[in-house]
Design a protein that fits this description.
Layout (H helix, E strand, L loop, with lengths): L1 E6 L9 E6 L6 E2 L4 E6 L3 E6 L4 E6 L6 E2 L4 E7 L14 H6 L14 H8 L7 H6 L6 E3 L3 E5 L9 H10 L17 H13 L29 H16 L2 E9 L1 H9 L1 H6 L6 H15 L6 E2 L6 E2 L6 E3 L1 E3 L2 E3 L2 E2 L7 H16 L13 E5 L18 E5 L3 E6 L4 E14 L5 H16 L7
Parallel strand pairs: 1-9, 14-18, 18-19
Antiparallel strand pairs: 1-8, 2-4, 2-7, 3-6, 4-5, 5-10, 6-8, 11-21, 12-13, 14-17, 15-16, 19-21, 20-21
The structure holds oxidized coenzyme A.
Oxidized coenzyme A binds next to helix 9, strand 15, helix 10 and strand 18.
Length: 450
């Protein structure tokens, strides 16, 4: 039996590094190279490993304490007089520090400085050789610190063993959510990330960190229900769009005072025709005119990104809120149909959607989508583009408000519009012109027939 004191090695000039975590307690058995504590300076976090195997008989530091090179941190009682970091009595710690393979990690971290430096690639990691170049005093062992992260550089906080594993799997560690103390990435986090990426679960599979799974029952009573196929399909489509399409949304308001007066005047006729006339058919018609004038909004980007596919037809999708979930039937040739025809088709397709009677063909071929939440409420939202389309118009609830006409306030009915588009295809200027044109068309519907 012999006692060895472990001290803080050369930590690369980090003066006054703080003990942020103790990794062992008195009485713990440790193997050589096992982390004893984590130090954090303004430059880096690093793990101070034990240089010998044995039992921790004394911990000489506590969390929050500032330590510098040479400060004693623990006393380890060894069975054989002190196997050093190489596992060989009296060996040179530098050998272990430079070796690729290290003893099995504990708590997700293991000292393995060669790995760590390679992963960080910064070249400013605390020098392993520096630690080795200073021979420990008799009865004192100085470990090579294992760098965990660049504290101010936004790098991942993980031990070398986890970094090594991440490198082997090709996982960018910054994208893995750490569940360890102070957000450290543990081996289990990495495993969960890889599992999720392979299963195409909540992670995108494109290296985007998955949202950690939470056991909500820890906080109170919960009920778990199965999602419908439609909901899952919608979720996948939304995520695909959100991750692939750089979205921009522009907002404006159309003054639909005259449109509304005209529409109210046609209500009787609508009844006689066996239909209802809402603002939506007018909005569809206005979109068709704007799409004809700016066909880019009805185009699609070829998969190789090299070409744009322009469509010589004007089919517009219409988002329908149904008890089963969101459906988007497509109204064909909107540009060639009258407002009455569109009104009838809106009703028929919305009914079919709610009764789940839409055929797949009725939900395909759209060039652009209109999503109207006008009946539900709200004064604005940012709709998500429905790829391979490049544009979508969100319509919110119209309201009558006082508007300054240059001489006084007059009541006007304003319809909030939000145009989202794929910024790979549509520029801000195009977006502004398209939305301005829609506002003008809805503000004076006589222009729809021009
Ligand atoms: N502002 C104020 N009132 C509006 C309005 C608006 N923007 N839009 C419609 N209204 C009025 C209509 O005029 C009608 O009132 P009147 O009978 O007095 O004229 C009433 O609201 C009901 O309209 P409606 O909902 O029956 O018909 P619609 O043509 O406006 O909409 C449909 C049809 C299918 C688009 C709609 O029912 C729907 O499902 N909307 C939800 C779409 C959705 O979920 N989008 C989000 C997708 S992303 O998650």
């Amino acid at each position: 039996m012999a006692k060895q004191q472990v001290t803080v090695p050369d930590i690369g000039g980090a003066e006054g590094a703080e003990v942020i975590e103790l990794l062992v307690a008195v009485g713990d058995e440790v193997v050589a190279d096992q982390g004893l504590l984590v130090l954090e300076s303004d430059k880096a976090s690093m793990e101070i490993p034990s240089t010998v195997a044995g039992t921790v008989v004394e911990l000489l530091v506590s969390e929050g304490q500032q330590l510098a090179e040479g400060a004693p941190v623990a006393v380890i009682e060894t069975a054989d007089g002190g196997a050093d970091a190489t596992g060989q009595p009296g060996g040179d710690p530098a050998v272990a520090a430079d070796e690729e393979e290290a003893p099995p990690p504990t708590r997700g971290v293991a000292p393995e400085i060669a790995d760590t430096e390679a992963a960080a690639g910064t070249g400013d990691a605390p020098a392993a050789t520096g630690a080795a170049a200073t021979p420990p005093h008799p009865g004192e062992a100085r470990a090579a610190p294992a760098r965990l992260e660049a504290a101010s550089g936004g790098g991942a906080y993980a031990g070398p063993a986890v970094r090594k594993l991440a490198r082997e799997f090709g996982v960018p560690l910054q994208q893995v959510s750490g569940s360890g103390p102070r957000g450290r990435v543990l081996k289990e986090d990495l495993q969960q990330y890889v599992k999720q990426a392979l299963s195409g679960g909540t992670g995108s599979g494109a290296g985007i960190p998955a949202i950690p799974e939470i056991d909500f029952s820890r906080f109170g009573e919960v009920e778990v229900t199965q999602r419908s196929k439609l909901d899952k399909l919608t979720a996948a489509n939304m995520q695909r769009s959100w991750l692939n399409v750089p979205h921009v949304t522009q907002f404006d308001e159309a003054d639909i005072t005259e449109l509304e007066a005209f529409r109210q005047g046609l209500k009787g006729e609508a009844g006689q025709r066996g239909t209802r006339l809402t603002p939506l058919p007018f909005i569809l018609k206005a979109c068709a005119v704007a799409l004809r004038e700016q066909p880019k909004f009805a185009s699609s980007l070829a998969a190789n990104g090299e070409q744009l596919v322009y469509k010589r037809y004007t089919h517009i999708g219409m988002a329908v809120d149904t008890p089963a979930g969101l459906m988007v039937p497509v109204i064909r040739d909107v540009d060639r149909k009258s407002v009455w025809e569109l009104a009838a088709e809106v009703l028929a397709l919305a009914d079919k959607a709610r009764e789940r009677k839409l055929t797949p063909a009725e939900m395909q071929g759209g060039c652009f989508t209109v999503s109207s939440l006008g009946t539900i409420g709200g004064n604005g939202f940012t709709p998500i583009v429905n790829p391979p389309e490049v544009g979508i118009l969100g319509v919110s609830r119209a309201a009558t408000r006082p508007v300054w006409d240059g001489q006084g306030f007059v009541p006007r009915t304003l319809l909030p519009l939000a145009l989202s588009y794929d910024h790979r295809v549509i520029n801000g200027g195009d977006g502004g012109r398209f939305l301005t044109r829609l506002v003008a068309l809805l503000g004076d519907i006589r222009r729809l027939v021009m």
